[in-house]
């Protein structure tokens, strides 16, 4: 794992660049505002997702126990009419793996999961989320963009996370109260014809130990 970043006064701006999933634990290190697992998405899965008609891409918002992710994503695929191909199983299993990884990382049992199909300039402004932390993984299209900011202005240098590479970011509610100088955004794609499929995971701490599933589509 390598920690890279710049110095901004009174800000946490380091980005942990990991080559294994365990490297995402860098998010807990002092001075680390985000961590990225630089994995390569399986070529067959990447090509299959990229070639799907966007209307068949699964999407929805779910609050659930980590053990229910696999079933929930299968349900979202059925709702969308996602083709019953071997690659669909790979996608569902990968999303479940990402949720388990994030659950262990944040030490929570419940999470808020979003699968977004994006064709517009959603969240195009650089920002920090008002949450504890978030994992973002783009399965289709251009990945999340990020950069270091001074005084909330747009970053001068913008970096793009690779497709299939999960990124974990601290939010404004991170418990040590440190200010993050790292901003991120969804890439502006409106008018390009591009369609993105993005997984977003947030930790949920205020649910009892019972299975909960709320699907919105």
Structure description:
With 217 residues, this protein is α+β, with helices and mostly antiparallel strands. The chain is 19% helix and 29% strand. The chain has 3 helices and 12 strands. It has a 9-stranded mixed β-sheet with strand order 1-2-3-9-6-11-5-4-12. It has a 3-stranded antiparallel β-sheet with strand order 8-7-10, with no helix packed on it. The relative contact order is 0.23.
Q: How many beta-strand elements?
A: 12
Mean pLDDT: 87
Helix content: 10-25%
Q: How much of the sequence is in beta strands?
A: 25-35%
Structural class: alpha+beta
> Any low-confidence stretches, pLDDT <50, length ≥5?
5-11, 208-217
**Cα shape:** globular
The spatial strand order of the largest sheet comes to 1-2-3-9-6-11-5-4-12
Biggest beta sheet summary? 9 strands, mixed
Number of helices: 3
Order of helices and strands: EEEHEHHEEEEEEEE
Estimated radius of gyration: 17 Å
What is the rounded distance between the termini?
38 Å
């Amino acid at each position: 794992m390598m920690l890279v970043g710049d110095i901004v006064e009174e800000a946490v701006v380091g980005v942990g660049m990991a080559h294994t999933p365990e490297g995402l634990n860098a998010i807990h290190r002092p001075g680390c505002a985000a961590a990225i697992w630089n994995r390569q998405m399986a070529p067959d899965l990447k090509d299959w997702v990229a070639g799907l008609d966007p209307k068949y891409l699964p999407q929805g918002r779910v609050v659930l126990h980590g053990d229910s992710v696999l079933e929930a994503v299968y349900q979202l695929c059925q709702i969308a009419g996602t083709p019953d191909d071997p690659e669909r199983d790979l996608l569902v299993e990968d999303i479940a793996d990402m949720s388990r990884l994030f659950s262990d990382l944040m030490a929570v049992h419940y999470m808020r999961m979003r699968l977004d199909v994006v064709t517009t300039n959603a969240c195009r402004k650089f920002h920090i989320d008002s949450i504890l932390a978030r994992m973002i993984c783009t399965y289709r299209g251009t990945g999340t963009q990020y950069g270091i900011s001074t005084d909330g202005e747009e970053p001068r240098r913008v970096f793009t996370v690779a497709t299939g590479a999960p990124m974990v970011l601290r939010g404004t509610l991170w418990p040590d109260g440190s200010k993050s100088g790292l901003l991120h955004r969804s890439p502006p794609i409106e008018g390009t014809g591009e369609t993105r499929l993005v997984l977003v995971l947030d930790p949920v701490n205020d649910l009892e130990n019972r299975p909960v599933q709320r699907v919105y589509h």
